[in-house]
Amino acid sequence: MATKMIIGYLSTLYHTSFILRASGQMADLGINASWKLFPNGPAMIEAFEKEELDLGYIGLPPAMIGIVRGLKIRCVAGGHVEGTVLIGGSNYHPGETAIEALSQFKGKAIGTPRRGSIHDIILRKLINDSGLGDDIEIKNFDWADFILDAMMDGEVEGGCGTPPLAVLAGRQLGAKIILPPSKTWPYNPSYGIIATESCINESLAVLGEFLKLHENACNLIREKPNEAAKLVHKIIDIIEVDFALEVFRVSPKYCASLPAEYIDSSMAFVPALKEMGYLAGSLKREDVFSTKAIEEIHAEDHHYFLNQK
Fold first, then answer.
1. CATH assignment of 3-81+188-308, given 3.40.190.10, 3.55.40.10, 2.60.34.10, 3.40.50.720?
2. CB 3.0 to 4.6 Å from 47: which of 27, 52, 302, 304, for a disulfide?
3. What is the distance of C-alpha 104 from the center of its chain?
4. Over the stretch 41-57, which tens digit does the pLDDT of each residue have?
């Protein structure tokens, strides 16, 4: 008998959700997966609070906010690091530092996803640390697609979001990445796999099978990106293979493991979230992460920076 699993996902092309949906492998393992699309991480957390999800693909800050509010979820696997980029129009120039890049936006606005999303938190932290909090307006959008529309309309001069936004803005507007992922927040957890405690405690075997597929899909994006891009095109035919490949290349740091670097970078968000008023309490590593399942599946060293070793 098939095991039902309800999974929340975002429209971010380099998440393994697209590959797993296209491959049919979950059904082969007896997992009856129901996929629900969300515009952003905070909206997915609201669905977790309504007990509508078993798993989710999400950045860690929204999950942390949910955990402090009493939500019984944990991060059980990684997926990608350094997935936040800062882009500007064709007349903007790449900066070596955040302050150099952001200074170009004085008196102007930058668009980013909903408040509490990982991109929103990173952008606010960068602006505040650069001493530009009074000089740059942040505009939040429910869907990342709306950021591109706002750039086209002149409502914002730049955007802070995912590699797909950067690639699309580059193609349609001649926009540039003016602060690359590695310089926004090193090792930041672009996304992880979040599971309910009931899923972890009561469906560990099924969760383990899912994480094996997730690990294999991460490897596919990293090792055989052309095959991965074809699967993305299969599930969303308007996404061309060359577009998906360009997205994969922006920050090619894919792996399912939860190494210390991933966890430490995630926990570094806690003081930033408290400073911004998102967190009223404190969090410890064990409040956020449950590493047992992925450690059994991915016992070797992580692959996030494999190409740089």
1. 3.40.190.10
2. 52
3. 26
4. 999 999 999 999 999 99
